Known about the structure:
Structural class: mainly alpha
Order of helices and strands: HHHHHHHHHHHHH
Radius of gyration: 25 Å
Largest sheet: none
Distance between the termini: 34 Å
Number of helices: 13
CATH topology of the largest domain: MetI-like fold
Strand content: under 5%
CATH architecture of the largest domain: Orthogonal Bundle
CATH superfamily of the largest domain: MetI-like
Number of domains: 2
Shape: globular
Amino acid sequence: MATLIVYVIFFLVPADPARITGVGLAASPTLLAEIRSQLHLDVPFYQQYWIFVWNIIRHQSLGYSFQNGTSVRWIIGQDARVTASLVLGGVFFWLLISIPVGILSALRPRSLFDRLAMLFVLVGISMPPFFLGLILAYVFGFKLGWTPISDYCNFFPHSGGECNGPAHWAYHLILPWVSFMVLFAALYVRLIRAGILEIAGEDYVRTARAKGASGRRVVVHHILRNSMLPVVTVLGMDIALAFGAALFIEKVFNLHGLGSELIGAAQRDDVPVVVGCIVVITFAVILMNFIVDVAYAWLDPRIRTGARIRRNA
């Protein structure tokens, strides 16, 4: 559905892909007709779309760029690793920070730590990620010179170029990760804190304490596990938002990822690259939501029990 919508939008754009492909060549009418035939532009729109879908299913091909004839799958392969590093690293760090801070803040309400955590929430929600990225790049990258402020290093050693290896990869992504995760970490601290405070007042928690369960068991097995359910639910939606937020961070730190490629291709009317980027991003969001659903079933035994009841019915 996403590919169909994008195809319809760009089909209505008054641009000639044959002329885009023929830039720099002697674009005679004969040559333009030959290019249109090679790109299947001489057939109706619905046939063009079917050819695109069939190539994905049969040949795992996303087509070729109208701009330079490069394989879209190769272009996206180069850019997807940048966006995946930014998004997955950001998700890891915002959960790494928000979960313990939210838990400690809820277990010690109105304490100094709780007040500092709420201050962090206020600052994180109020400050746009791109603005924070500019401040961090100026202070820590330009003024102090502690971290790089641009470019991307390959994760795998000996992958070509002077900048590669896990250490250089993480070193170049420190500021993008921090800029990316502060907003989401602030939201999740507040969400986790509110969930724990709500669950702590439930009847089954008071019953567990009345039966003599230790404080640690009550917190781990009764409060934390149930308070994480809303977090997992929201996480699936926020990962989709994270791909949109990654565009701004890529611009600030000169990271050429899927967001930058998508905007550039849209400006050039390069339909195969635009649709290819959207296909990959959509697949990534679906995959991450599937992982979140599996985690949700693991956290909530009622879902597994309900599934077994339906199978046995």
